[in-house]
User: Fold Serine hydroxymethyltransferase from Phytomonospora endophytica.
Amino acid sequence: LDVIRSVEPRVADAIGQELADQRESLKLIASENYASPAVLLTMGNWFSDKYAEGTIGRRFYAGCRNVDTVESVAAEHAKALFGAPHAYVQPHSGIDANLVAFWAILAAKIEAPFLTEHTAKHVNDLSEEDWAVLRRALGDQRMLGMSLDAGGHLTHGFRPNISGKMFEQRSYGTDHQTGLLDYDALRSAAREFRPLIIVAGYSAYPRLVNFRLVREIADEVGATLMVDMAHFAGLVAGKVLTGDFDPVPHAQIVTTTTHKSLRGPRGGMVLCQPELAEQVDRGCPMVLGGPLPHVMAAKAVALAEARTPDFQNYAQRIVDNSRALAEGLLKRGATLVTGGTDNHLVLIDVSSYGITGRQAEAALLDSGVVTNRNSVPQDPNGAWYTSGVRIGTPALTTRGLGTAEMDEVAALIHTVLDATTQGTTKSGAPSKATHVLDAKVSESVATQAAEL
Ligand code: PLP
Assistant:
C-alpha cells in the first residue's frame, strides 16, 4: 500500500478501508466471494500491460506467446472442470459473456446459413443489399428468458439491457402459489412464442432448475438452450449440481461469471458445443475489446483451485450453510420465497416485517450485515424499493463459517429486521426509502457481526 500511497493516498486509504470493511462485516451478497491470495496476486502483474486481440495462436499483435499460454491453460482447466467440449475465457464480465453467446447463436443460426445459402459469400464481401436482408433476419429474433421478478437477470432480454433491444422478448416465471419454476407454463410459452433462444439460469431463484427438461422444451420448438450459470457455477464445479441440474451436458451454450460462487477473478466465460465454437471464438473483436491477460491468468489459477477435492467440499458447505441459514430464519418467523433453498441463496420477503427491501437492506448495513434488496415474484414495490432481501453463503463459507454460525447469522438478521420500522417523508407520510432502527439493537448486532 505504501507504493500506492506515494502516488495517490486516497486510493491507498480506500483499499485499506475496503479490507477493513470486508473483514468487520458479514458479507451476505449472494454474488460476492473472497478470491484466494493466488488469484489476487495473479491479477496484479505485467500481463495487464499486454494487448492480445484475437484467439490463441491467432493474434492481431506480436509478442503474445505468454498470453497464449495462460489463455490455453485457463481453457484447458475450464473444459476439464465442467466437461465442456469448448471454453472461451476472454469475456471481461458476465454481461460480456452473454453478449458473446447471443451473437454466436444468432450468427450460427442466421448469419452462417445466410452466407452459404443466400449469397455464398464471405462476410467481408457482402453488398449493402445483402446486409439489409441479413439485418432484417437478425433483427427479427426472439428470446424467452426468466422474468426479472422471478429471479432472471437483466441480460435475459430486458429493456434496460441491450438483449431487450436486440431481441423481441417474452418471459417465463414461477408458480404464484409455490414460487417454483413452472415448466408447463414455460413449455406453453415456448410453443406459442417460438423463440430462437431460451435462456435458463438466474440471479435470485433459490431452487434448482431441471436443465434436461428445459432442453427438451427447447428441442421441441427448435430453440437453442443457453444457460447463464453465473450464480451457481461454483456448485456445478464442485459437483453439487449434477445430472439434470448440471447445465453443461444439456445446453448448447453455457455462460458464467468467474467471481461469484466459482471464487475467481471478476470476469466471464463461455462453454459450448463444438458447432458453436467458431462463432464463440469471434467474441473479440465482434463484441469484446482486447482480452485482459492478467484476468485470464487469474481465471486459470481459480479454475485449477476449483478442480481440487477442497473446492468440492467448499461447494457442499455453501449449500449446507444456505439451508441452515434458511432454517434459522424460518424458525424465527421470517417469510422466504419458495419456503426455503436448495442452492447458495435465500430470498427473504421482508413485507412480513412491515418494511421494504430498501429499508431492510439499509438497516442491515447499519448493523454490519451486507446484503442487497431484491424483487420478489409479483413484487408490489417494484424493482427499486422491492419487498425482498437476497442473501447468499459463498463468501461466509469461504471465511470458514459453518451451520452453527449460520443460525447465529439468521438470529442477527431477524433481530435487525424486527427492530426496524418504516421512516417517514418530510410531510410525515410513510416512506419506502427511509427506516427507523433501534440504535442499541444495531450497535449490538454490529459488534456480534464483527466478532463472527
Ligand atoms: N448473469 C447473471 C445470472 C448474473 O447474476 C450477473 C450479475 O449479477 C451477470 C450475468 C452479470 O455479470 P457481470 O456483473 O460480471 O457482468
